[in-house]
Structure formats: structure tokens, C-alpha cells
């Protein structure tokens, strides 16, 4: 019923390989292999099975419907990617870092594994794939081909028809010829000429000729020929990139060479000459991998920001597959757009992405900075740092600043939502709103008063907070147009202003100045009162909502969570907790606090009016959680458990420092995934044959017969009985009561009860009781792991179906009895 | 994949008067024509029929001017003393005028001698007008009486002696042929109905009434007197609708524009103010050299004629708007071919070739797109851009600085170009919106060209100029800071009086440049 902190990986890495007929796009993503449709950009299939990161995927050269994948867990899997089913699993035993399936090799594949006994040295080995009957096979026949190779997939390439293998590491190129068993080594000079860096970065082989192309760290591409001879080899140089060449790819005929790098420009070289080249510029972010389809009609590039771009053969942008765009640094925080309920955060450099959680898609990307982004290291780029929405989502305020520390080039922009254009339009731009960095920004949220009461507050490190209001145009006849201007500047003892927050009714503004929280009247801008809780600066503040609107919550640097009562102006309670994120739920009184302590993040949910938390989830994840946001649900979810009542109206999302987005859910992963798209795809791809029709008919008939005979009922009974017995058997013998006591219960459990109806009623009652019992256990030990809870409860639920009430109670009594005295012996 | 984004040029809002539709409309007049008359011009009246001649009453003459004539096309000079208030009839064929000797004369616009003379007023007649049935004339005299005359028989129909001071203005209703109003120096405006023996309504203006006006609908009445212009609702029994006080001397004349949307008032303070008749706010105003006595607007607002106390007649004609029509005519055939096939819906088997949209980029943008920094800087240092749109030059410099190529773009220039650069920097570095960027540029230039200082007299001179400009600016800022300090102490003493003494200072908007992009 409950699964804790379901973690969804939105990171996309690894290599992309195209399927046959250029219809499918295969991509290794985390522990999974994803299959995309090229035409619709949809995820058709998610093939999971590896226990660790998938490091390489290659098509089976002998069967284009099959795919090999290798993983860090030491297995190679053979898949049928059309149906998404694993065919075979070969266990190799050591970490696999890269996988190659050249066409020439008969029944062996090549993998890169770490050399035993030596750190950071890797070797290329060929693995003989045994032809066994079973699904799980051992593949232990390893023979070393090359020693001292690079760990990356891009550092090794196989020549035409698998005649030779080339590998690069640092400044050496090794070529090994299989037939002649000859190894040639070529070295470049290590001396850096003119700031250039000769290190190899990637390698590819020409598909039809004896030619090797290598990319280098200084942006050069070298084309090697005549490498059969140790001395008389030649190479020519192509140079366009100004920084490291990230990946290279030859077209199917070898006439064209594609290269990409940090510049995010795809370069196409014709006939290996440096004068004939085409460009596809401004692809958005640095190119990491380039891959060609097997028919040469399409090519695709993988970018560092979690995006795949599909490009036509005539170098025209075709489409892109993107989920949550990974930006360098999420400075804006997680903000929810009130209009679309989309998550809003930094996207591409200078852009704001609206990410729909329901469809796992980017709704749109709003260009905020409106400047050409230059992909070059060491430039002072200006980027978006703060975002705030008004309550209705009609106004959007953004702050952008350049990376310079001393004199940030600040701009505050206010955007108005244009109904006809369905997008935000720039209304006012304010240069240098503060003299120093802006630390926080918030709108006064007042739904009922309309736009006239809209106020924006910004706090800055220049020790002031500023209030911005809308001013109408003075021209009476002109169309209603407004702009924003500064109305009030407030400061407190020349301390830096760090946070600001409006109360729910908009009458009070809380601004924190280093150690002190000040509360201001938003009508007259008078200072009402101050709070502080030394030592330590205030990190976060927020007002309580609904019934708890008289409380102000603050978290300090030194690990205190304080709650002040605004009516008595006194501290209500405080707790020792190193709070990193403090996030109030906009629809209920609950406030979520995420703490960071000794390498694990914990979640506490509480109401401000009582110091005891409503919900605790320790060890939420190993990464540091940087941001959190409550996203309102479209309709309140039915949650029976009182413990999770706070999740009823809105859902909590987290972003960790590795930019993984997580959520807490009461449903399991399978339930949440809508399988509609997958099924559709399967049905489309399967042709309707007479046999399938016949088979389908037969199956339907069988199902009908089953129901007629009432088979399923009995079937269910047996299934339900088995876990109860298992439970008895799995409990350690030394904690079980005497066998004579258990005997009757055990035998009773095997009997089939006659009255189904009464059993159900009993089940209901018991379920309620079990919940109470669970609450009891919570009180005993609040830090109990969530997973234990789940299994515990599910078992109870199942057992109630066949045990009578009295027996159930007895069993529970036994379980609850304290057997700790046994451990004393 | 995104297209190249052009450099954003920061536009600053223009300070001062905002440009509205009204300012554009009322500015659309040519430079005025000045005509000298013999004395103060007390009345200007446009003929209601084309070619819209106008009668100007000044001293003892009535001049009739054509639309574009500088000289009078006709003169009525049969007055022994001053003439007053020459007014056209609705058909433009008759003209009535009062005079100092108390006789009202009626002229045919074609003839010279008066057709009729109405004698009955004992004192000068300052106001004459036709009723809308065309056969009667109303008049008001300094003998406090308002009379009604019959044109065919030249006899007095009725005389009202209700005012207690000079009657100086009047107006007939266009809706009802029996109704007319007169305003008097006794601070009242009276509404008369020819069918009754006495006035039907009296409105208290509380200042000597100089001018009255009825709206074409007849429902609203405007009176001017003293510094006030007041609007009254006649249908509600003379209720005050709005009182306008926008002049600082006596308002002498009122006038409506042809559409009835704007009200004009002229005053002795040398201004003509234009009000919107929906909001009664001033939307525009004209300035004149001397005090204004009379004002008239031709049909379609073609001409504004203003008469002054010193006898100067100021005539403004509207600028023609023909250019747009011509260009549209030329375009027509091209537009037709452009539209051709627009409605064609592609069929399923059709192969669509999309026409690439051509984006027009400025020269510097093209150069920046291909990373040619020096050439991009050259492009914006050309005199037309540098002189008229310095913000473009500065924006490109900023973009180059952002890309880290500003130094190389500035380096390697000859004497002439360095001279050009330094002239620009020295001139613009003190403008607050350019200062942050140009200070960096000046820094770099001095760094780069330091070794060659002293080799060229021109460049050395420019360096000295730059130094001078910066020195002056520093002095100026110091002074400003002193003033700010003084003001702070003043404000501090004010805030002490309040119970809550807070550290706050309202609007220190020194560093803010607020810019608004409006949606046109």
C-alpha cells in the first residue's frame, strides 16, 4: 500500500545507438535502456534488469532486432528491444566499462574491464558468448586483446570488418591487427605547443577504408593513414574546434565526418578536407556523443543537459527528445507555476523551463536573459537566479545577474502573462535594482483583492529591502498600461537582508536581517516587532497558514528551528534541527523541513501549532537535498492512512545536489506509470495474423471457462494461505511460542472457511485495528523504517482473510510480547 | 536549436512630456501665419459652408479671409466706432454684427452695405447671434438687456432686462429655435425661451462670464469667467458637472472642435488648453505670444485661428497627410500576387517546401554572429550610429566585454580610429546609463595605448579631454553627495516628530534606471 520515497532517475547518460530502419532510438539511461520512437519522440519501452549503471549498448551485428547491453554489475544482456524482453544474460564477473560488437567477430563481444590488482588500468578483452540453452549463462572465456586502454567507450574503435582495433590513451595510439597479430604504437609529442594539448579524446575508424580519425583536447582532428607500417605512417590535421573534441562519427560510406564539442556546434567535414565543411550551430549545450543511424539517414547528438537531438542527413535540425533539462546550477529554486502546475526552474543557460510533472515533458522554455550564449570556458555568463510568481500566475518576476562577485550586473524583470499569445511578455526591466546580490524575492499573494494590491519585495545584500508597486500610466486616453517602480526602501541596523515572506492575508511582511527577523506592516511600512534566536543567522523563514497563521517559523544556521507566536510576540517552541529546506504547503497548515545531518537527508513534516512532527522520514536519500516544493494535486487523493494525510492535497518534490528529482508517493511505481503508450506501440507493431486471432479467441474462451467453474476463488485462497504459513515458518524458532500452542492455529489456517461474507466483514474491522496497532508501534519507535511498515501491514491484511478474529488477536499478542529478555541469555 | 539572438540595445524612456494620440494630432499643424489687424480682435467666426471663410472683427472693421489668403478678401467698414461680434448665419449668406453705437447691422456676404439695421439698444452691443430658425437675431448689450429681433421686418420682438450688468456673451441652441442663452458680468448665465416673457433658467457662475457655449446636443452648457471653465447640465436644471481651473488668468473664449470630443479654451495667460470632453482633463495645450481674446476652429479642424489683444491674428493650418496614400497605391499589385494561393490547402500527397523566413540582422549583429569582434566594433563606430544612437555602440561594447574580446577589438587601431574612440568615450562617459561600460572601455584604451602616448598630438589632446570630463564629473558627484547629506539631516528632523523612529528613507532612486517596454 505504501512505498517510501519512490526515486525516479531523470539523469540520462551513456551511449545512444540507433535501431534498424531508423525507427527506434535506443539510449542507456541510468540502470535502464530506453527505447524512443524517432517519429513521435515518445518513450516506447523502458528495459530494466541491470543492477547498476548501463555502460554500453550495441546492436547485435547478426540480428538487427537484438541488442547487447553491458553494465557495471558485470553482466551482458541480450535483448529483443521490439518487445522489450531479455533473451539472455551472460555473467562476466568484473565491472564492464564499455562494450563493442564488431561485425567480424563470430560469437564473441569485446568489453573493457579493470585490470586485476592494478588501479586505474583497464584492458580490452574478448568474451566468448557460449551458446547454452538457459537464460542465465556464465561467460568466463576471456582473452586479453589490448592492455592499458582508456576506460571511456570513446577511446576504442574497431576498423573495417573488424580487421583491427585502435585504442587511444593520453598521447599514444595503439593499433592491433587481428590477422597478423601485430601491435603498432604511435606517440605524439607530449610537449604542449602554443598552449595546445595533444591528448587524445576520442577515436573512430573509417567504415570502408583503412583510416582512423582521432579527436584531441586542443580541438584538432587527426586523420591517420598507412598505419600498417611502424615508420611510414602519415596523418593530416583538421582544425576548427577551439576546445576539446568530444565525439566523432563517420557516415555510413565514410565520405562525411561529424564532430562535436563544447561549442555546441555540429561540424560536418566532407571528403576529409578541411576546406569543405558545414555547420549546425547553436544546439543548446555541449555535445557529448554523436551517433549515426544504420541507414545513414539520421544522426543524433547527446548533450550534457539531458537531451537528445535528432538531425537529418542534410544537417537540418529534426526534433529533440528532452525531459527535465539539467542546468549547471539550479539557483532559482523549485517554483510551481500556479497556472499550469508545472515545476519551474533553471533550464538552458538564461532560460526558465516549465516542466510538467504529469507528462514528464518540458512545456516550454522562456528566454529570460535574451542574449546569445557563448559556450566558452572562463566567460562571465549572466544567468537567472531568482523567480517568483504572483498568486494567479499573471505576473512573473525574474532576477538575473552575472557571475562576477564584486560588481554583479543585476537586472530585475517583470513579465505579464499575455492571454492571447499564451506566454509571458516583458513588461518592465529594472537595471541595478540593488547595489549587491539579491537574496530573496516574493509577491504579496492576495487572491481576493486583485491586481491593484500586487506588491513585490526584494531583499539584497546591500542591507536594504525594496518594495515595488505597479504604477498606471498618466495618460487618461491611452490603453491601460502599467509599469513597476520602487515605492519603499527599508533597512534594519545596516544588516544584510536575507529572506522575506508575506503572511497569508498579506498584512504582514517578515524580513530577516542576518540574526534578526523583522515584521513590518504592509500598509504603512512601520516596523512592528523583531524576533531573534542567537546564535546564527536566519536561514529560512515562513508564515503558518490557515489555522496556524499566527505563527512565524524560522530556521537558523546553528541548527535551530523556531516558532514564534505573532500575537504574544514570544517564542512558542524551538527544536534542534539543522534545517536546509523549509517549505510550507500552500493548501494546508503543514510545513516540510528537510534536514542534513551526517551524510543523510531527513524529512520532518509538522504543524506550527504543535512542536511534535506529524511525519518523520529519516534517511530520505544519501545526497543533500537542496530544494523542495509542494505541487498542488488536481484533485485530492484518497489516503486512508492518517500518517500520510498531509500528502492529500499536494505532493512534495525534492531536488538533490546531483539534480535528481524525487517525490514521496503512497503508490508503487507500477501503479503510477500509465502503460497506455506502451501497449499502443506493441499493438501497432504486431501484425494481425490468423494465428494471433485464433490464439486470442482460445484465450478468451479459457478465461470464461475459468470464471464459470469458479476456479479463481479457490486459486486465491491457496495463494493467500501460503504467506501466512511462510510467516510462521520464517519467524526465528527461538522467538516462537511452543509448538502445541501454534498447532491449532496452523491447522485452522489450512481449512477453507464457508462463510465468505462474514470473513469480509471481519477483515474490515481488523484492518482498522491494524492501523491503530501501527500507530501504537509508531509511538514506540518513531524512527522505524518505512519499508518494514509496509510489509508488516500487507501481511496483516492478507492474513485476516483466512484467520478468524480471535485467532488473529492471539497471533498479534504473540508478536507484541516482548522477547527481549531472550537476548539477555 | 535556437536562432541567433541579436544584441539587446537598452532603450531608456524619454523624460518629459509623454507622447499620446492627442499630442500627435494637435502637433500636426504647420508653422503659424501672423496677420496684423488694426486693433484687438474680439471675435473670429468661421462660415459654416465651404470654402470656410472666416470673419474677423477688430476695431471698426470686419475682415473676411479665405482659407489660405493672407489678405482679406472682403472688408465691411461701415462702422463709425468699434464693431463687435460678427457672426455668420447657418447658411453662411448673412452676417450680423453689433457695434459701439448700439446698432446691430445685418450684411449680405456678397454685398457691401448693410441689409438691415436694428436700433433699440441704448448702449454698445457686444453680442449678436442668429437663432437656429434663421429668421431671428438675439443680442445683448451694455444696457443690461437681451433682445430678440425679427429679420424681415427689422423690429424688436421682445426685450428681457433681467441681467444686472453688461451682457458680454451669448449662444443660441441648435436643437430648439426658441432657446438662447446670454452670459453677463453680473456672474450669471440666463437661459431664455422666446415663447415666454422671462428667463427659464439662471446659472450662477460666481465670476463675470466672458464666454458661453452650448454642446451640439443642447444638454450641456459651458461657461467661462474668471479663471474658471464650468460645465453645467442643462437638462438637470443647471447642475454643475465639473469646474476646471487650468488657467492662471481670465478665460476669454471657448470653442468646440468639429467632432465635439475636445473643448478648447483661450485665456489672457497666453495659453490655449484642449480638454477631453469625456474626462475633462487637459490633453494638450498651445502657447502664444500675447494674451488671447478670441479663438475659432474651422470644420474638420483644418485651421486654428487665434486673435490677440495686440491685434495679431495667428492662423495655423493642418499638415496634409497624402504620403501614406501614395505608397499604398504602389504596393497594391504586389500585395495581390503575395496573397495569391494563400488559401490553398495542401493535399495529403503534396510535398510542402517551406519558404525560409528571412531575418534581417544589423551589420554589427552579422559580424558578432561570426565572432568578428574588431569589425563589429568598427561597424558601430561609424558616425551615424555613434552620434545618433550611442546606446547601440555601448551595447555592442558591452557584448564584446561579455565575450571577453573587448580588449582585442580595441587594440591595433591607427591614430584616426583611436581619436574617434576617445572622442566618443570622453563625450559619453559621464552619462549615467553608459558610465559602467565606458569606464571599462576607457580603462582598456589607456592600458593598450599607454606606450604610444606622446607620439600623436591629436590623441594626446583627446586623452586630456577625457581626463577633464572625468574630473568634472567627480566634482559634480561630490557636490551631489553633499546635497544628499544635507537633505538626509532635514528628513531626519522630520521623522523624529513621529513616535516610531525608523531607519527609512523614501525613494533614493539615484542608481535606478527604470525602463518600460510597453505593448503597443
Largest sheet entry of chain A: 5 strands, mixed
Q: Please give the CATH architecture of the largest domain in chain B.
A: 7 Propeller
CATH H-level superfamily of the largest domain in chain B:
YVTN repeat-like/Quinoprotein amine dehydrogenase
Number of strands of chain B: 29
Radius of gyration of chain A: 32 Å
What's the number of domains of chain B? 2
Strand content of chain B: 25-35%
Instruction: Name the CATH superfamily classification of the domain at 1-151 in chain A.
Output: YVTN repeat-like/Quinoprotein amine dehydrogenase
- Rg over alpha carbons of chain B: 34 Å
Shape of chain B: elongated
Tell me, what is the CATH class of the domain at 1-151 in chain A? Answer: Mainly Beta
* Overall average residue pLDDT of chain B: 86
Biggest sheet layout of chain B: 4 strands, antiparallel
The CATH topology label of the domain at 1-151 in chain A is Methylamine Dehydrogenase, Chain H
Classify the helix fraction of chain B into a percent range. 25-40%
What share of the residues of chain A lie within helices?
10-25%
Strand content of chain A: 35-45%
State the helix count of chain A: 9
* Termini gap of chain B: 29 Å
Concise structural overview:
Chain B: Keywords: Nucleus, Repeat, rRNA processing, WD repeat. The complex is a heterodimer of chains A (825) and B (520). Chain A has 825 residues and is mainly beta.
Description:
The complex is a heterodimer of chains A (825) and B (520). With 825 residues, chain A is mainly β. Chain A contains nine helices and 56 strands. In chain A, a hairpin with a 3-residue loop joins β47 and β48. In chain A, α6 runs antiparallel to α7. Chain B is an alpha+beta fold and 520 residues long. Chain B has ten helices and 29 strands. At the A-B interface, β37 and β41 of A face α6 and β29 of B. β37 of chain A pairs antiparallel with β29 of chain B, so a sheet runs across the interface. Chain B: It comes from Chaetorhynchus papuensis. Chain B: It is found in: Nucleus, Nucleolus.
Amino acid at each position: 500500500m505504501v512505498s517510501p520515497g519512490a526515486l525516479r532517475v531523470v539523469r540520462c547518460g551513456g551511449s545512444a545507438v540507433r535501431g534498424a530502419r531508423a525507427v527506434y532510438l535506443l539510449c542507456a539511461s541510468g540502470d535502464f535502456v530506453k527505447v524512443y520512437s524517432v517519429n513521435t519522440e515518445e518513450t516506447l519501452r523502458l528495459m530494466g534488469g541491470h543492477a547498476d549503471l548501463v555502460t554500453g549498448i550495441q546492436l547485435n551485428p547478426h540480428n538487427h532486432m537484438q541488442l547487447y547491453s553491458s553494465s557495471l554489475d558485470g553482466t551482458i544482456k541480450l535483448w529483443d528491444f521490439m518487445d522489450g524482453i531479455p533473451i539472455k544474460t551472460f555473467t562476466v564477473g568484473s565491472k564492464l566499462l564499455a562494450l563493442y560488437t564488431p561485425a567480424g567477430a563470430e560469437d564473441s563481444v569485446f568489453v573493457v574491464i579493470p585490470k586485476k590488482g592494478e588501479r586505474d588500468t583497464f584492458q580490452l578483452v574478448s568474451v566468448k558468448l557460449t551458446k547454452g540453452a538457459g537464460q542465465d549463462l556464465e561467460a568466463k572465456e576471456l582473452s586479453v586483446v589490448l592492455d592499458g586502454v582508456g576506460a571511456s567507450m570513446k577511446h576504442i574503435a574497431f576498423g573495417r570488418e573488424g580487421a583491427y582495433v585502435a585504442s587511444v590513451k593520453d598521447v599514444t595510439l595503439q593499433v592491433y591487427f587481428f590477422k597478423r597479430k601485430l601491435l603498432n604504437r604511435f606517440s605524439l609529442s607530449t610537449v604542449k605547443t602554443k598552449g595546445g594539448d595533444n591528448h587524445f579524446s576520442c577515436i573512430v575508424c573509417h567504415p570502408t577504408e583503412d583510416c582512423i580519425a582521432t579527436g584531441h583536447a586542443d580541438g584538432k582532428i587527426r586523420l591517420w593513414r598507412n598505419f600498417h607500417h611502424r615508420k611510414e605512417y602519415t596523418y593530416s590535421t583538421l582544425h576548427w574546434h577551439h576546445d576539446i573534441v568530444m565525439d566523432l562519427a563517420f557516415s555510413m560510406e565514410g565520405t562525411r565526418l561529424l564532430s562535436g564539442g563544447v561549442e555546441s556546434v555540429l561540424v560536418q567535414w566532407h571528403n576529409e578536407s578541411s576546406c569543405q565543411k558545414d555547420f549546425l550551430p547553436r544546439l543548446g549545450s555541449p555535445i557529448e556523443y554523436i551517433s549515426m543511424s544504420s541507414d545513414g539517414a539520421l544522426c543524433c547528438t547527446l548533450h550534457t543537459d539531458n537531451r537528445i537531438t535528432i538531425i537529418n542527413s542534410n544537417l537540418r535540425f529534426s526534433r529533440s527528445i528532452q525531459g527535465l533539462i539539467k542546468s549547471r546550477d539550479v539557483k532559482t529554486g523549485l517554483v510551481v507555476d500556479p497556472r499550469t502546475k508545472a515545476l519551474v526552474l533553471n533550464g538552458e543557460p538564461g532560460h526558465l523551463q516549465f516542466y510538467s510533472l504529469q507528462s514528464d515533458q518540458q512545456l516550454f522554455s522562456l528566454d529570460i536573459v535574451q542574449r546569445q550564449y557563448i559556450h566558452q570556458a572562463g566567460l562571465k555568463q549572466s544567468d537567472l537566479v531568482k523567480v517568483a510568481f504572483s498568486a494567479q500566475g499573471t505576473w512573473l518576476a525574474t532576477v538575473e545577474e552575472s557571475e562576477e562577485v564584486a560588481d554583479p550586473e543585476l537586472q530585475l524583470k517583470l513579465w505579464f502573462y499575455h492571454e492571447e499569445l499564451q506566454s509571458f511578455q516583458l513588461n518592465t526591466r529594472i537595471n541595478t535594482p540593488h547595489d549587491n546580490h539579491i537574496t530573496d524575492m516574493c509577491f504579496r499573494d492576495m487572491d481576493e483583492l486583485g491586481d491593484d494590491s500586487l506588491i513585490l519585495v526584494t531583499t539584497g545584500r546591500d542591507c536594504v529591502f525594496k518594495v515595488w508597486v505597479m504604477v498606471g500610466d498618466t495618460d487618461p486616453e491611452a490603453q491601460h498600461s502599467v509599469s513597476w517602480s520602487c515605492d519603499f526602501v527599508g533597512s534594519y541596523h545596516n544588516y544584510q537582508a536575507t529572506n522575506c515572506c508575506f503572511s497569508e492575508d498579506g498584512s504582514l511582511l517578515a524580513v530577516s536581517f542576518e540574526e534578526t527577523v523583522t515584521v513590518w506592516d504592509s500598509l504603512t511600512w512601520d516596523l512592528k516587532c523583531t524576533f531573534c534566536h542567537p546564535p546564527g543567522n536566519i536561514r529560512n523563514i515562513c508564515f503558518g497558514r490557515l489555522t496556524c497563521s499566527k505563527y512565524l517559523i524560522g530556521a537558523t544556521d546553528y541548527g535551530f528551528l523556531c516558532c514564534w507566536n505573532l500575537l504574544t510576540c514570544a517564542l512558542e517552541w524551538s527544536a534542534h534541527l539543522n534545517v536546509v529546506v523549509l517549505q510550507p504547503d500552500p493548501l494546508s497548515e503543514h510545513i516540510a523541513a528537510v534536514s542534513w545531518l551526517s551524510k543523510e537527508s531527513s524529512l520532518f513534516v509538522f504543524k506550527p501549532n504543535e512542536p511534535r512532527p506529524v511525519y518523520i522520514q529519516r534517511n530520505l536519500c544519501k545526497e543533500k537535498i537542496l530544494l523542495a516544493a509542494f505541487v498542488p494535486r488536481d484533485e485530492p487523493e484518497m489516503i486512508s492512512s492518517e500518517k500520510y494525510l498531509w500528502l492529500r492535497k499536494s505532493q512534495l518534490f525534492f531536488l538533490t545536489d546531483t539534480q535528481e528529482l524525487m517525490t514521496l508517493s503512497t503508490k508503487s511505481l507500477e501503479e503510477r506509470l500509465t502503460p497506455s503508450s506502451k501497449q499502443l506501440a506493441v499493438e501497432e507493431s504486431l501484425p494481425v495474423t490468423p494465428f494471433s486471432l485464433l490464439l486470442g479467441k482460445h484465450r478468451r474462451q479459457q478465461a470464461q471457462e475459468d470464471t464459470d467453474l469458479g476456479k479463481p476463488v479457490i486459486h486465491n485462497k491457496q495463494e493467500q494461505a501460503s504467506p501466512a504459513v511462510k510467516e510462521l515458518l520464517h519467524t526465528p524458532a527461538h522467538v516462537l511460542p511452543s509448538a502445541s500452542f501454534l498447532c491449532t492455529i496452523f491447522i485452522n489456517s489450512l481449512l477453507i472457511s464457508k462463510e465468505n461474507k462474514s470473513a469480509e466483514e471481519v477483515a474490515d474491522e481488523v484492518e482498522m485495528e491494524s492501523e491503530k496497532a501501527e500507530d501504537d508501534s509508531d509511538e514506540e519507535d518513531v524512527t522505524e523504517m518505512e519499508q518494514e511498515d509496509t510489509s508488516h501491514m500487507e501481511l496483516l491484511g492478507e492474513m485476516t482473510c483466512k484467520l478468524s478474529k480471535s485467532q488473529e488477536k492471539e497471533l498479534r499478542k504473540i508478536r507484541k510480547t516482548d522477547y527481549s529478555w531472550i537476548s539477555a541469555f | 536549436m535556437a536562432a541567433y539572438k541579436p544584441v539587446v540595445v537598452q532603450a531608456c524612456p524619454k523624460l518629459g512630456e509623454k507622447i499620446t494620440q492627442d499630442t500627435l494630432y494637435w502637433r500636426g499643424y504647420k508653422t503659424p501665419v501672423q496677420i496684423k489687424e488694426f486693433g484687438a480682435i474680439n471675435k473670429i467666426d468661421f462660415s459654416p459652408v465651404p470654402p470656410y471663410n472666416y470673419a474677423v472683427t477688430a476695431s471698426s472693421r470686419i475682415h473676411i479671409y479665405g482659407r489660405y489668403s493672407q489678405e482679406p478678401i472682403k472688408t465691411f467698414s461701415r462702422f463709425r466706432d468699434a464693431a463687435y461680434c460678427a457672426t455668420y448665419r447657418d447658411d453662411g449668406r448673412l452676417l450680423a454684427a453689433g457695434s459701439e453705437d448700439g446698432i446691430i447691422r445685418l450684411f449680405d456676404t456678397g454685398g457691401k452695405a448693410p441689409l438691415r439695421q436694428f436700433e433699440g439698444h441704448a448702449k454698445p452691443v457686444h453680442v449678436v447671434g442668429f437663432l437656429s430658425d434663421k429668421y431671428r437675431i438675439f443680442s445683448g448689450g451694455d444696457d443690461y438687456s437681451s433682445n430678440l429681433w425679427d429679420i424681415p421686418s427689422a423690429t424688436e420682438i421682445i426685450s428681457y432686462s433681467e441681467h444686472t450688468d453688461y451682457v458680454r456673451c451669448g449662444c443660441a441652441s441648435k436643437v430648439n429655435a426658441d432657446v438662447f442663452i446670454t452670459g453677463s458680468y453680473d456672474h450669471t448665465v440666463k437661459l431664455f425661451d422666446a415663447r415666454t416673457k422671462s428667463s427659464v433658467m439662471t446659472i450662477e457662475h460666481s465670476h463675470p462670464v466672458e464666454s458661453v457655449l452650448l454642446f451640439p446636443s443642447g444638454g450641456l452648457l459651458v461657461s467661462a469667467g474668471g479663471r474658471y471653465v464650468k460645465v453645467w447640465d442643462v437638462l438637470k436644471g443647471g447642475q454643475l458637472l465639473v469646474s476646471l481651473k487650468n488657467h492662471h488668468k481670465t478665460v476669454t473664449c471657448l470653442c468646440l472642435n468639429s467632432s465635439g470630443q475636445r473643448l478648447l479654451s483661450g485665456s489672457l495667460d497666453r495659453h490655449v488648453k484642449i480638454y477631453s470632453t469625456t474626462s475633462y482633463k487637459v490633453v494638450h495645450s498651445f502657447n502664444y505670444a500675447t494674451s488671447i481674446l478670441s479663438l475659432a476652429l474651422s470644420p474638420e479642424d483644418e485651421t486654428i485661428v487665434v486673435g490677440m489683444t495686440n491685434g495679431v491674428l495667428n492662423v495655423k493650418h493642418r499638415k496634409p497627410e497624402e504620403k501614406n496614400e501614395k505608397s499604398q497605391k504602389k504596393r497594391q499589385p504586389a500585395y495581390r500576387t503575395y496573397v495569391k494561393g494563400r488559401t490553398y490547402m495542401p493535399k495529403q500527397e503534396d510535398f510542402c517546401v517551406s519558404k525560409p523566413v528571412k531575418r534581417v540582422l544589423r551589420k554589427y549583429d552579422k559580424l558578432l554572429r561570426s565572432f568578428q569582434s574588431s569589425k563589429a566594433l568598427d561597424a558601430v563606430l561609424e558616425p551615424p550610429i555613434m552620434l545618433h544612437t550611442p546606446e547601440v555602440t555601448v551595447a555592442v561594447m558591452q557584448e564584446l566585454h561579455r565575450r571577453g574580446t573587448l580588449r582585442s577589438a580595441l587594440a591595433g587601431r591607427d591614430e584616426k580610429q583611436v581619436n574617434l574612440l576617445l572622442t566618443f568615450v570622453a563625450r559619453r562617459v559621464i552619462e549615467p546609463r553608459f558610465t559602467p561600460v565606458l569606464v571599462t572601455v576607457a580603462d582598456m584604451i589607456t592600458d593598450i595605448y599607454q606606450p604610444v602616448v606622446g607620439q600623436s598630438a591629436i590623441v594626446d589632446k583627446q586623452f586630456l579631454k577625457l581626463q577633464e570630463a572625468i574630473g568634472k564629473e567627480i566634482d559634480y558627484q561630490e557636490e551631489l553627495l553633499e546635497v544628499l547629506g544635507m537633505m538626509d539631516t532635514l528628513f531626519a528632523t522630520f521623522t523624529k516628530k513621529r513616535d516610531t523612529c525608523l531607519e527609512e528613507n523614501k525613494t533614493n532612486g539615484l542608481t535606478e534606471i527604470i525602463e518600460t517596454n510597453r505593448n503597443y
